[in-house]
Amino acid sequence: MKPLIAPSVLASDFANLQSEVEMLNKSQADWLHIDIMDGRFVPNISFGFPVMEAIRRYAQKPLDVHLMIVEPAQYIEQFRAAGADTITVHYEACTHLHRTLQQIKATGAKAGIALNPHTSVQLLEDVIADADMVLLMSVNPGFGGQKFIENTYRKIEILKNLIISRNSKAIIEIDGGVNQHNAPLLLEKGADVLVAGSFVFSSADPLQTIADLKSSAN
Fold first, then answer.
1. pTM here?
2. 59: containing domain
3. Is 175 a catalytic residue?
4. Which of 6, 46, 147, 197 has the highest local Cβ count within 10 Å?
5. CATH for 113
6. Residue 214 Cα distances to 19, 65, 113, 184, angstroms
7. Quick one: which residues bind a divalent metal cation (predicted)?
8. Could you read off the pLDDT of 169-212 as tens digits, one per residue?
9. Which residues are annotated as a binding site?
């Protein structure tokens, strides 16, 4: 099975957002990854509902929304209304994670859990069966263009075993420092979805770069 590729719109040219989204529509990308940052959970601010709604107007592919914000439960319905197909919240930001996952599912969106690099996969043992996806951060969240953290390979293996042991249907997404060099091993270890930002949008030919990532499992 070919991996799902989710280019991170945060790395696109915001002055030409419509054309960037239309380029992704023509590409082999499966999802558009949307990073929402509030300047509190992470030391950066990205964009909110108006920009996301603008992306939704032009996007022909599902929106994979990653909430790097505190108190995400307050905004779940708004993000769904703005066009989110998958909503991922951070384990570290949710006091009542199970409740938040149920809240996401009640809107009709898929529910994901994100883990920072320092957070143990084992902490998901009691909620993994309720998640549609687990996003492993392979860099520290908040800024693009960071160096890939090698321990991610080990975390994927542990997570895959946990998913199997708990009969969960969750898929595994990797976000941060993904490129043509580490993509094959990430997929070999058990990743299903690869998020790529700077690697795609800074390349000379983003369409070909996405196609190359798509064929990484071959």
1. 0.96
2. 4-214
3. yes
4. 6
5. 3.20.20.70
6. 22, 20, 23, 10
7. 33, 35, 66, 175
8. 999 999 999 999 999 999 999 999 999 999 999 999 999 999 99
9. 8, 33, 35, 66, 142-145, 175-177, 197-198
